[in-house]
Amino acid sequence: MTGDLSLPTGFGYGASMRFAEADGADGYLIQGYEPGAIRIAGQTYREGLIVTPRRLVPGWGPVAAAQLTPADVEALLDFAPQVILLGTGERQVFPAATLLTAAHKRRIGIEVMDTGAACRTYNILVGEGRDVVAGLMMM
Q: How many CB atoms lie within 10 A of CB 4?
């Protein structure tokens, strides 16, 4: 990753974060986030989404972690990644253990964290060449 990405007003530090711009070889990287918005590939998304190095699926998942369903988790598992990052909004909220069972049975790691941490971790793992999928709920 090289350079500093200039993001629109509102994308900054504190409750939000800016990231360096990718050179394109890494695939989709998260450029920034703030409450109610995530910026990827120059586009701002205002709803939950799935992002992998090669795919971006807006409109995924629940508004709140407590509403997560088996179908939401299956949508992440369909990518058959090494690891799933589950961004649960402003705070880390662990879903019911029964929702994570399918990932454990397939020997796919699943990490639950607040969405900001999931965005940062996703970019690091993509930069390392890891096969990662992130399911991100809005903060």
A: 9
